[in-house]
Amino acid sequence: MFYFGDKKIIYIILAILVLGSIFTMTTGSILSLILTLPAVLIAITFHEYAHAFVADKLGDDTPRIQGRLTLNPFAHLDPIGAVLLVFVHFGWGKPVEINPRNFSRKISMSAGEAIVSLAGPLMNFILAIVFTIISCILVKFASSFILFNQIGAIIYTLIKICISINIGLGVFNLIPLPPLDGSKILMHFLPYNAKNWMIRNQNIFYIVFLLIWITGLAGVIISPVIDFIYNIIVGGIGRLFGIL
Fold this sequence. Notes:
This protein is mainly alpha-helical and 244 residues long. The chain has helices at residues 8-23, 27-57, 62-65, 79-88, 109-141, 143-148, 150-173, 181-189, 192-200, 202-214, 217-240. Helix content is 73%, strand content 0%. Helix 2 crosses helix 7, helix 5 (109-141) runs antiparallel to helix 7 (150-173) and helix 7 packs across helix 11.
């Protein structure tokens, strides 16, 4: 979950970056873009649904009232976040609004927020595992379908893209910068003064995010983590199936 509020200048800058990427696209990258769209819809939809589902289970019916307790992708898409997810494999969906005061008194509001925030990235990693298992089943028991059938090759490619997109979205949202999911998780463990400081200085973190994005540091920071998790999931499950 990522939210820029009304910071139109940030939207404009990000749009310029995306347009620059579009104008340098080749035929191959356009095909890759088309194949990426279904994976983006799946990743964002399940990510935001997980936030809504867990909040609802903890006693907050705000997401249900706002129509977010659904797997309809159009209820969860943020235009800028979805576009960035398509082009750079990390982005965000439309934030799920919650009211921590509605949470069950069995847990604190802070703990509830952290659990709801963790649900989205965790769902993406679960999806990555599920799609990896499916890909391994295809390789193990239907390799000819993948190698010699065009539809099979496309399906296999879509599955592999789903794995990458979900891992990218999950890792990106765990960055501990407000207002990413990772910041809500981090703030639960911070002392009271440090938590208030982060809340008061959220605009600074917007600027920090923008700087690391423009300079390419976002990719430098995130890519090794994405590769590490990808190797754990794909490598580990592949070895279980005896295909690596």
